[in-house]
Amino acid sequence: MPTRxxxxxxxxxxxxxxxxxxxxxxxxxAWLVWQGLSTISWDFLTTGPAPGSLEQGVAGGIxxxxxxxxxxxxxxxxxxIPLGLGVAIFLTxxxxxxxxxxxxxxxxxxxxxxxxxxxxxxxxxxxSQGWLSWLSNPVGDAGMATAQSFxxxxxxxxxxxxPPVVRSSQAAILxxxxxxxxxxxxLGKGRLTTIRRxxxxxxxxxIATGIVLGIGRIAGDTAIxxxxxxxxxxxxxxxxxxxxxxxxxxxxxxxxxxxTYIFFSSPAGEGNSPGQAYGxxxxxxxxILFVNIALIRLSRRKIGKR
Amino acid sequence: METPNNERGxxxxxxQDDPGYERAIHQxxxxxxxxxxxxxxxxxxxxxTVVTAPADTTAAAQASPTDLPIAPTEPAVxxxxxxxxxxxAGHPKHVADPSDLVLAIRGLRVSFSGNEILHGVDIDxxxxxxxxxxxxxxxxxxxxxxxxxxxxELAPTxxxxxxxxxxxxxxxxxxxxxxxxxRRIGMVFQQPNPFPMTIFDNVAFAxxxxxxxxxxxxxxxxxxxxxxxxxxxWGEVKDNLDRNALSLSGGQQQRLCIARTLAAxxxxxxxxxxxxALDPRSTARIEELIVQLxxxxxxxxxxxxxxxxxxxxxxxxxxxxxxxxxxxLAEQVFEDPREQSTRDFVxxxxx
Lengths: 306, 351
Prior knowledge:
The complex is a heterodimer. Chain A is mainly α.
């Protein structure tokens, strides 16, 4: 224990900061579990919302919202991961020409900082163009598109999922010791081989962290879902939406995610079924937690046998 | 009391047989130092002293039972200068023809952001020899070494002029295949730097060309075994090829790095203070390995350790503040330097 008073004060403050955080998180989690668990049932997870129902008890389940969250995560990251990794490699290994590298840096910071609702609004303007109606659905014969579909939402989601992937991968790539790059060059390997075989494998844990953060951002976003996926929360999805041959039609249609479901069914939204909201929030938390653990596990490759 | 006798014998033989050879070499390196001398003049095969003298030296070496005196159990920094003399006397045997230069560095200037590190350096590396680059910290040894496999230019601020001739052709010529060049001139770094892969994969990495046609493990195994044998590591790792290379000791890691370099079939291996991060025992093993590898390939080694340079070097070059001060037979540079500055350095007055 430090003897000086100011030191002791500092230690106490640090303890307090950590303690407050732990308590806050524990309370939130406990509250979610306590409130959410009572709602969760097999039916809650495997049925859609009852049409037109806004009341607790007859509101139905969250299946379309759960699937919707998975879809925007999957499609968003499908674009964000390769793009983000490419940008990170460009920014760390190439950085030529310099103006492009600097511009990219600024762009990533901007995307990170600007609220997603701004991008959602921009997306609405773009995706409602008639020639992009294949991403959603045409609006009558006005030469416009609805701009509300899983495709439209996922593309914008890719944008907000991108910065964490870039920044985290960038840090991880910079963390790969230069000695290893040089060792590879000194063995007569080119830049591309070195990046593919040495740099990216060495940066895997950091890249995985970036992916996890990106997924968290996408799963937590509400504005893009609201504007580019539609508020189709209490609508039951069309019959047979899960059939493979209906997939493209389904992805061009409106939908919902857990975040909009939570908003909608909470007393702050249009519904009055907080139980549903807690249940959905609990599921969302479990999904994110599961994805995090799985990805971090996968990224830690074990080299050889003990 | 066998060793002292041998040493005396060697000294005597050296004194009797070597002066002509040494003079010839002196002249050669002098020529090399004059920017006017060209390779052909230095390598005049009609000069009888050059051709005959090495044979005598070889005979002297064969007479010596302390051919490889660095047993693994011996401390690396041999305290007795006599031991070193014995080894050095045994060494030029690696060089069949001292005028056959595998590497000839001519007027090499390197600067970073306008700050010149090397001010036009000439170095000769006869084929099969061990060339020790010595000099105080910051004299440009490492930069020189890294300019021979063109790693220097990885730094965007580097600017390089002059020539590095590998088998007579300048590696800085336009159209040089960098990847091929770096396979022909391998490098072992100061800090052992195995990849975070298995032992097998570390060695196989150098052999595998393209991901499309990746050779199978079993087809690579004989070659992997061969280079691990040559690096003196096979016995220690043959049952653990699938272990993480980073689980090896520092000395083993460095030998793995040498094996990895050998896997690319280099003609020259550049070593940048390969033992400075190792304990004396591992150092001794690496030195032993260098002596074994010399002859079949050429080794250019940067070292801070003068005793090491004496033990393993056939030739030595002394650099100071980016200038080559002196180069020649290691024995001559260390025992009878021409320049006062070299004399000060090898006698430990500075550096």
